[in-house]
Specification:
By secondary structure, this protein is of the alpha/beta class. The protein has a 6-stranded parallel beta sheet with strand order 1-8-5-4-2-3, with helices on both faces. It has a two-stranded antiparallel ribbon with strand order 6-7. It contains 15 helices and 8 strands. Helix 7 runs parallel beside helix 9 and helix 11 (281-296) packs antiparallel against helix 13. It has 2 domains: 11-178, 3-Layer(aba) Sandwich (Rossmann fold), CATH 3.40.50.1970; 183-385, Up-down Bundle (Dehydroquinate synthase-like, alpha domain). Bound molecules: 5,6-dihydroxy-NADP (NZQ) and zinc ion. Zinc ion binds next to helix 7.
Length: 387
Amino acid sequence: MLNFDFQNKTKIIFGKDTENRVGQELKIYGKKVLLHFGGGSIKKYGLYDKVLHSLQEAGIVVVELGGVEPNPKLSLVNKGIEICKSENIDSILAVGGGSVIDSAKAIGVGAKYDGDVWDFCLGKAEVKDTLPVGVILTIPAAGSESSSGSVITKEEGLYKKAFGSPLIRPKFAILNPEITFTLPKYQTAAGIVDMMAHIMERYFTNEQNVDLTDRLCEGTLKAIIDNASTVLETPDDYDARAEIMWASTIAHNDLLSTGRMGDWASHNIEHELSGIYDMTHGAGLAIIFPAWMKYVYKHDLSRFIQFATRVWDVPMSFDDPQWTALEGINRMESFFKSLGMPTTLKDAGITEDRYEEMAKKATEFGPQGNFIKLEKDDIVNIYKLAK
Ligand code: NZQ
Ligand code: ZN
């Protein structure tokens, strides 16, 4: 096990009606908030009114910035930074999913920085300060509600890049599973794939003695798999929604990374799909993860056999251990299909003539991954396996 520091300062407020506590939670961070949200689901389903009421009751002045798109864009981040500076905003409240939260995080650091906020995504600047960010989560998926990362797309050149710092973890995140009852099936499914991917990025490590975190990863994956069909078939099943919502946070709050080095190649390879084609991140991962696994499984066959037998209940074949490993990958791919996710680039309308360009872009700042370092040609091969 590697040495590690673990601190996740995000306060999680979980359960029914908890959104009504937002004013009380936020007021310790000042009197003026930027209320940041997406394309309108919060207004359509009544959350917006409840939030405004709670903020007003706590005496908080609200400045609004809606319109965050999935795969959030740099131009809106810059607009938010301008507002924060000109209006002397004290804190930011993100009401939405990963896109809204990531946009809020970028606005928060940009408001405390004199240069171009894109510098953080290019690694040219380190986060030193941020406005405090609070969250009301509406879709379990990205785990941004307590993660140390933010992913932003620069429209010019369609670059989708991440930056991170423990300082950008939200101060609090309110998680009411009832708010997720209105999610379309496709978003629910994409969220499930994304949270599973966050666990698997951590699971496929070269560290050998990480039994506790292996078991935590496997257990969390199993809980997600067990509850997935219920949330798709019965969207208002509170108990299943609650399991899935808590799993999305656990998957990405870094507890499951302790003592091990994660891989993250699949995420970075996927970012080319959601950056260039604006596809849903989780759907892109459903295409890339099985292909990545097929490309790398021989690097540590026993880890893939462990994954297959413990997570997907594949019987161990002592005559053909490779079969066991591959059967685990196949069962995962079939599971993604059963959720209604695409599993090939063709399903997503991405043709072979773009593979070189996407692989080049994915490796522009160096090779990807830690389990195995992947160069441009490896990534082309992974896209071919995902054809
Ligand atoms: O915009 P509105 O109208 O709110 O609709 C949203 C959006 O269209 C809708 N939605 C959200 N909650 C709803 C709802 N519709 C009905 N009822 C509700 N309760 O869902 C759509 C998708 O929202 P989005 O925020 O884009 O989803 P998600 O949470 O999957 O976030 C994806 C983004 O997070 C990034 C991804 O790359 C992508 O840009 N990630 C961020 C990470 C992080 N910061 O740690 C890690 C992840 O790996 C990921 O990369
Ligand atoms: Zn993700």
